[in-house]
Amino acid sequence: MSVVATLDAWGRVGLTYPGFAVMDQLLVAPGGVDKGELLPFDLIRAVNGQLVTAGHEVQAEVRRHPVGTRFHYLVSRRGTVLEADIPSRAITLTDFKRYVTDGLLPSLLYLGLAAVVLALRPGAPETRVFLFFALTWFCTAGLFPDSWTAYRFSTLFLTAWAFAPAAYLHIALRFPRPRPILYRRPRLVWIPYLVAAVLALAIQLPMTHMPVAWTYLVPAVAATYWALAFVVLVGSLVQSAVWGATPLIRQHAKVLTAGFVVGPLLPVLGTAAEAVAGVAVPYLEQIWRLNVLFPATVAYGMVRYDLFDLRAVIRTGTVYAAVTGVVVVAYAGAITLVNVAFARLGMGESLLVPAVVVALAVVLFLNPVYQRTQGLVDRLFFRERLDIGRTMEQVADTMTTLLDLNRIVLLITETVDRLLHPHGHALLLLDTEGNVYRPMGPDSAAYLAVPADGALARLLDRRPVPLTRERLAADPEFSGLSETALATLDALGAALVVPVVFRGRVRGMLALGPKRAGTAYTTEDLRLARHLVNQSAVALENARAYTALEVAHTELQSALRRVQILESIRTNLAKFVPRTVQDLIEEAPEAPAFEKREVDVTVLFVDIAGYTRLSERFDVARVNQLVERYFGAFLDEILGRGGDVNETAGDGLMVIFRGPDPRDHARAAVLAAQGVLRRAHAINDELTELSEPIRLHVGVNSGTAGVGATKIEGSAGTRWTYTASGPVTNLASRLAALGEGDAVMVGSETASRLGAEIALEDWGERQLRNVEEPVRVFRLSVPTRPAPALGR
Predict the structure, then answer these.
(1) Using CA atoms, how far apart are residues 697 and 527, in angstroms rounded to an integer?
(2) Could you give the CA distance from residue 52 to residue 42 in angstroms, rounded to a whole number?
(3) Long-range contacts of the stretch 286-292 (C-beta < 8 A, 24+)
(4) Using one digit for the tens of pLDDT, what is the confidence trace for 257-279?
(5) pLDDT tens figures, 590-628
(6) Which of 66, 264, 541, 656 lies 20 to 30 A from 31 at CA?
(7) CA end-to-end span of the chain
(8) Reported pTM
C-alpha cells in the first residue's frame, strides 16, 4: 500500500486539484491540509452550478480547466447552504516531499515499531493490541493524502480512522496492566469496537442522501470520539506512570506517555477542535509533523531502558553481523587472490583448480579463523555472558558430588546473588507432610512458608514457568488468582518466583527480590534463573532423599537403642515381677488385664525356721549370701514345675501354681515342695560352717483365690501388687507353720487332687492359729535322697 500510495503521489505532481482537500464523500478533509475558504467537514453540493455526488467528480471537473481557474461551489455547512469561489491549484514537488516526510515516514515508523514488538513478544495479548493500534496509525497517516486525491484507499482510511479510538481505549484498559474492571467485565473491551463499527459504516454512507444536519453530525461525532479516546489513553498512562505497581510498569507507562504527549497528542486535539468547533488552528500542518516523534520516542525508550530486552538483541545482532561481514570480506578476498594468482601462473582458464583451492582454504583456514574470531568477540563484547556460562558449568559440576541439602541450597543462593544481584532471595522446598513450601537456608527464618494449595502454588502448577509481578498482573490467564498470588509475593518480598520442577511436578520455588540496580528482570535473567533451578532440581531431590534416609537411619538407630534399653529394663524388672505379670503385659502391653479374678490355684509357702538366730550369728552380707544360695536352688525346683514366685520376704517365699487342670497344678506344687526340701538338705550337708542345719516350714493348699492386682494408694503415691488372696492363701501359710523341716504339710483339698503314687500321712483335724474351724491336715515325708527327675 505504501508503494502504491507513493507512486500515486508522485504521479499527481503537476496535476490540478480544487485548492482544498475534498474526500470522496464530498466532505472537506480536516487536519493540516489546504482548505481554501472552507472549514473541515463542509459538504460540497455543486461545482459551477452542476450537482456532484462524489469527490472524484469534483476532481475531474477541476482538471478540465487550467490551473488558477476560479470555481463556484455550493456548500452545506452545519445545516446552512452557502457559496464560495475558490481557485484551483497545482500539486507541486514540495507537496510530494511533504507527503513523504509528514505521511509516509511516520506511517512506516509505526509499522516498523509494531513489527519489532511483534518479533520480541509474539504471544502477548498487549502485542496484538499494539499491532492494531500501529496499523490504524499507518493507514491514517500514510493514506491520508490518498483520501482526498486518488481515492484508491478511501474506504480503508476512513475505517482505520473510525476504529482508532477503539484501539486507544483498548490500550488504556490493558496497558501496562489490565484494569481490575476487566476481570469483572471481560467483554467491556468490545464496546468501543462496537461504537467504532457503527461510526465506520455511517461515515462512509453517501452524504448526498443524508439529511443536511447529519452530514456534519456523523463526522463530528467520529472526530470527538477520536479525541476523547486519545485523552483517556494518555490519562491512563499518566496514572500508571505515577502509581504503577512495579518499577517496570511505571517505566513502560512513562515511555509511552512521553511518546504520545510529544507526538500525536497535539495534532489529534488540534484536528478535533478544528473539525468540531469550526475554528482554524494556526500551524496545524506543522503540528502534524510531530507525529513522527511517537515511534521515535518509543524506539529510544526501548533501547535506552532495555524494554523487551531490545538492547541485548541490537548489541548481539550488530556485533555478530559485523564479525560475519568481516569473514565474508575475507572469503571474497581469498577467492579474488586465488583467481589473480592462478591467472598470473597461466592457470586461469581452469575453473576446477581455483575452486578446489578455495574450498580447502575455507575448510582449513577460514572456518577455524571464524570460530576463533567468534570466541574472541564473546570474550570482548559478551564477557558477562561468557562468565555466566562458566559459572553455570562450575555449579553443575559441584552439584553432581553434593548430597548435603544445606550446602546445595547455599550454593544455589550464592550463585543467584552473584549473577542476578537481587534484594534478598529464598529457596522454598515442598514439605509433603505439612502441604507447604518451607524456606531453606540460613535466612529461612526471615521468610514465610507458602501453602501448597495457595494461589501462587496453583499458578506454578498450572504454568511451571518463571513468574514476575508484571506477568502476574498483566496475563489474563492468571485472572482470579493473580491478586492473591501478588499478595504472597509481597509477603515474600519477591519480584520474581521460579518453580523447581522435577519429573513434571513443582517441588519447590526460588523467590527473588527486586534487583539491586532497580531495573526489571530481563528475558535473559529469567532464562538464567530457570536454567539454574532446572540444573538444581535433580541435586535437590537426591539430597532430600539422602537427608530423609539419614533421618530414617538415625530414627531407626534411636528406636533400636530404645528397644535395647526397654529389653534391659524388661530383663531387670523380670527379676522383681512375677512371671504371670510379665505374661499379661506381653499379651497386651497397652492395657494388661490386672483386674482381680477368681482362679483355681495351689499355693506353696516356704519359710526358713530360725531366720532371726541366723541373722544374729552372721553379718548382713553373709546372711544375704546364704538366702540367695538356698532360694536360688529353690527357684530351679519351682520354675521347673511351672510355679510363679509371687512374693518374697526375708525368710520366705509364696509361690502360685495354676493351670487348666486342678490336679496337675496341685501335683506340681507338692513335687516342687519335695524338691525344695531335698535341695535344702543337700545344701545343709555342704555348708560345714553352720552349727545347726537350716530347717524349712513348707505348706501347700489348693482352692479358689482372688488373683490380680491390688492398689495401695496413699498421700505419698500409689503402689500396685499382684498376688493371690483369700482363705486358700491364709491356710497355706498356717499349714507351713506346722512343718518341721522334713515334711510338706498339705491341705485336704490338695490331698484330694493327688494320686495314689504320692503317699500322704493323715494327721487328722488340727486347730490352726487364727482359723475358726479345725482343718484336716496331711503330711508328706521327704527323705534326704536326691530328687527325682522333673516330670515324673
Answers:
(1) 95
(2) 14
(3) 286/32, 287/32, 288/31, 288/32, 288/102, 289/101, 289/102, 290/262, 290/263, 290/264, 290/266, 291/102, 291/106, 291/137, 291/141, 291/263, 291/264, 291/267, 292/101, 292/102, 292/105, 292/106, 292/109, 292/263
(4) 888 888 888 988 988 888 888 77
(5) 556 557 788 899 999 988 876 767 777 777 888 788 888
(6) 66
(7) 124
(8) 0.52
